[in-house]
């Protein structure tokens, strides 16, 4: 009979594997690889995500990896923007590319009915070959070839039809504006090679497990039928949660029965929050409705390992003042832990500014 794991064990194990019980001294590139891919829909999110997990992390550590092409930003998990190490990108991209195509067809299938997608992909690749372009620049190039086609469908077709990367300064700290596109072979100097889903499953479980087959599908964006967990079962550990749901883990996966969980300010879209269909190991269903609204996932404050509040950071450059607003679901715990971690976040994200911390109801 498989062992039943309660929410406390699942919570502490996830925090341990996510480097959130204690900041690690490992290099930033190693941490990105351990996490499989770091959410990067908003430019500052991967920086704050790594700052939470690594000791002595500085923005230049990640920006340098992007410029050195050791880490690549592109659409990966769930068809959304992530950063992955270049070796991982080379096999993750072809494996996850169909997700972007499915999303594009869902949004623009009717407008693009009858289009020759191979011809469109070839035209986009030709426009990008040997250079980088913004989405508007590429859209204009495609519109010259097909002036009567739906502009939005053309503009968003690139990421669905052609594997691309987003070179810096796109996605670097405090850099907002048009995203740039380049072909992987031009940027990384190598071809993409698909390895299949088995490695992605084991990498996911090592970083987020124990977890269910449905959890993996929600995290990756792949369909349940794309992965045969029954075939993998003999090579995995099997548990159950308190509701009887079957959970899988890598054989060497360490369970953490109990440990102190420090305060952490996770950024928006952090994969720890998005890695499970059942997110009760991190928050109640009621709080999930506030944190995850449509396509938005708000920044969260973890207290004792669970979502205690949401937060936002606003900087006024003219006044040289940064305000961290904490929207609580319940009163903050007694003691200085939250205020001290908030001060560390402000020092990292807004150095040289005057700092203010506000606490309001969520």
Written account of the structure:
The strands form five sheets. A five-stranded mixed β-sheet has the order 9-12-13-14-15. Among the domains are: 22-187, no CATH class; 283-361, no CATH class. It contains 16 helices and 15 strands. Helix content is 40%, strand content 18%. It has 362 residues and is of the alpha+beta class.
Give a short overview:
With 362 residues, the chain is an alpha+beta fold.
The gyration radius over C-alpha positions equals 21 Å
| Record field, number of beta strands | 15
Helix segment tally: 16
Beta-strand content bin: 15-25%
Helical content, roughly?
25-40%
How far apart the termini lie comes to: 42 Å
Protein structure class: alpha+beta
Largest sheet: 5 strands, mixed
Shape: globular
Low-confidence stretches: none
In spatial order, strands of the major sheet run 9-12-13-14-15
Overall mean pLDDT score?
95
Keywords: DNA-binding
GO molecular function: DNA binding
Organism: Actinomadura sediminis
InterPro entries: AlkZ-like
Topology:
Blueprint: E1 3-5, H1 7-17, H2 28-34, E2 38-39, H3 45-53, H4 59-67, E3 71-75, E4 81-85, H5 86-108, H6 117-128, E5 133-134, H7 135-145, H8 151-155, H9 157-161, E6 180-181, H10 184-187, H11 197-208, H12 213-220, H13 229-232, E7 237-241, E8 246-249, E9 264-266, H14 271-274, H15 285-291, E10 292-293, E11 296-297, E12 300-303, E13 306-316, E14 321-328, H16 337-349, E15 354-361
Parallel strand pairs: 1-7, 14-15
Antiparallel strand pairs: 2-4, 3-4, 5-6, 7-8, 9-12, 10-11, 12-13, 13-14
């Amino acid at each position: 009979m498989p062992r039943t794991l309660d929410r406390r064990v699942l919570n502490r194990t996830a925090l341990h594997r996510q480097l959130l019980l204690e900041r690690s001294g490992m290099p930033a590139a190693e941490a990105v690889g351990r996490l499989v891919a770091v959410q990067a829909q908003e430019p500052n999110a991967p920086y704050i995500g790594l700052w939470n997990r690594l000791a002595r992390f500085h923005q230049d550590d990640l920006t340098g990896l992007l410029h050195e092409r050791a880490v690549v930003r592109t659409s990966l998990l769930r068809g959304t923007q992530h950063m992955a190490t270049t070796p991982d990108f080379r096999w993750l991209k072809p494996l996850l590319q169909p997700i972007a195509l499915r999303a594009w067809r869902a949004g623009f299938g009717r407008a693009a009915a009858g289009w020759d997608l191979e011809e469109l992909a070839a035209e986009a690749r030709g426009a990008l070959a040997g250079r980088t372009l913004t989405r508007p620049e590429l859209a204009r190039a495609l519109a010259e070839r097909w002036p009567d086609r739906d502009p939005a469908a053309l503009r968003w077709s690139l990421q669905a039809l052609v594997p691309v990367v987003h070179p810096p300064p796109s996605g670097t700290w405090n850099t907002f504006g048009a995203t740039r596109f380049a072909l992987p072979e031009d940027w990384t100097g190598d071809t993409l090679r698909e390895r299949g889903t088995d490695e992605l499953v084991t990498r996911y479980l090592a970083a987020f497990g124990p977890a269910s087959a449905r959890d993996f599908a929600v995290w990756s964006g792949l369909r349940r039928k794309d992965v045969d967990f029954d075939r993998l079962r003999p090579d995995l550990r099997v548990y159950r949660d308190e509701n009887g749901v079957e959970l899988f883990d890598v054989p060497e996966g360490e369970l953490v029965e109990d440990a102190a969980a420090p305060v952490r300010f996770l950024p928006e879209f952090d994969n720890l929050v998005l890695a499970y269909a059942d997110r009760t190991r991190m928050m109640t269903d009621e709080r999930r409705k506030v944190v995850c609204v449509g396509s938005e996932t708000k920044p969260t404050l973890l207290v004792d390992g669970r979502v205690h509040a949401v937060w936002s950071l606003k900087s006024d450059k003219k006044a040289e003042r940064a305000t961290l607003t904490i929207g609580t679901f319940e009163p903050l715990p007694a003691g200085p832990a939250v205020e001290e971690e908030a001060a560390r976040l402000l020092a990292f994200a807004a150095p040289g500014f005057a700092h203010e911390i506000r606490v309001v109801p969520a």
